[in-house]
């Protein structure tokens, strides 16, 4: 039994040495492939806050809501694209004597293109809306674009591995490992598209180039630009080489 045990141990050690030697001797190459993509959003989410105020006469939330819905009707924007986020009220001192309840409501309006956005901004400005901004950019096929960009990153890794292997007169074999290093989607607008608590929309709006609303939308739609959604993917791939 002792001899059999020693024999099995010897066989095991031999097999282990062969496998280890084979593993060590297998050449490989490790590369990282990246891909970046920019897409124009077809879904623009605008946050709008309506707040009661006293001009010559008190503008109530009901009146402001009616005006906002009229804008949507005039621009053929379905009312379903306007969603109420929250409503609240607070007490405000008026001339240090009277107290009144000031009510405000916050909405999210979904738009499809920058030209409609420009018209909405102008109409909000005429309403005297003081708080509105682009809260998010999106694309209806964002998942498909992200998948496409990931595939491009892996293909970029394969191409890199192939030309590096050719540099030493070798070729790549099968992929031994694929792991994700980065998958980043930036769909938040730049600060240039935001405006909050200003005298009015037009005075506080600025695009990426720093122009005012009236300058940006001066009748030439070709000058209107919208921030792009940026997608970045990176994959680490390990190939055998032969």
Task: Spell out the blueprint of helices and strands.
Blueprint lengths: L1 H24 L2 E12 L3 E9 L1 E2 L3 E2 L1 H14 L7 E13 L3 E14 L2 H14 L3 E8 L3 H25 L5 E15 L7 E2 L5 H4 L8 H4 L12 E13 L1
Antiparallel strand pairs: 1-10, 2-6, 2-7, 3-4, 5-6, 7-9, 8-10
Helix pairs in contact: 2-3
Percent helix: 25-40%
Query: Residue ranges: pLDDT <50 for 5 or more in a row?
Result: 191-224
Terminal CA distance reads: 45 Å
Mean pLDDT: 77
Got a strand count?
10
Going across the biggest sheet, name each strand in turn.
5-6-2-7-9
Radius of gyration: 31 Å
Secondary-structure content class: alpha+beta
CATH top level label of the domain at 43-137 and 193-227: Alpha Beta
CATH architecture of the domain at 43-137 and 193-227: 2-Layer Sandwich
Principal-axis shape: rod-shaped
Largest sheet: 5 strands, antiparallel
Number of helices: 6
What is the H-and-E element order?
Answer: HEEEEHEEHEHEEHHE
In the CATH hierarchy, the third-tier topology of the domain at 43-137 and 193-227 is known as Alpha-Beta Plaits
């Amino acid at each position: 039994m002792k001899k059999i045990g020693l024999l099995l141990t010897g066989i095991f050690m031999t097999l282990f040495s062969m496998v280890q030697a084979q593993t060590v001797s297998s050449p490989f190459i490790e590369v990282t492939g990246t891909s970046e993509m920019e897409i124009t959003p077809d879904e623009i989410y605008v946050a709008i806050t309506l707040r009661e105020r006293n001009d010559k006469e008190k503008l109530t939330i009901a009146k402001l809501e009616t005006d906002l819905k009229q804008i949507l009707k005039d621009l053929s924007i379905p009312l379903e694209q306007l969603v109420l986020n929250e409503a609240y009220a607070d007490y405000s001192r008026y001339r240090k004597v009277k107290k009144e309840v000031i009510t405000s409501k916050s909405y999210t309006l979904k738009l499809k293109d920058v030209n409609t956005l420009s018209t909405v901004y102008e109409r909000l400005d005429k309403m005297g809306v003081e708080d509105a901004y682009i809260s998010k950019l999106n694309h209806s096929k964002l998942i498909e674009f992200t998948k496409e960009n990931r595939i491009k990153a892996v293909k970029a890794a394969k191409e890199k591995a192939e030309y590096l292997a050719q540099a030493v007169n070798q070729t790549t074999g099968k992929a031994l490992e694929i792991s994700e290093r980065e998958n980043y989607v930036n769909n938040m607008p730049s600060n240039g598209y935001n405006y909050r608590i200003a005298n009015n929309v037009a005075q506080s709006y600025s695009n990426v180039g720093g122009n005012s609303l009236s300058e940006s939308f001066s009748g030439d739609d070709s000058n209107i630009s919208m921030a792009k959604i940026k997608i970045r993917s990176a994959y680490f791939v390990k190939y055998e080489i032969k």
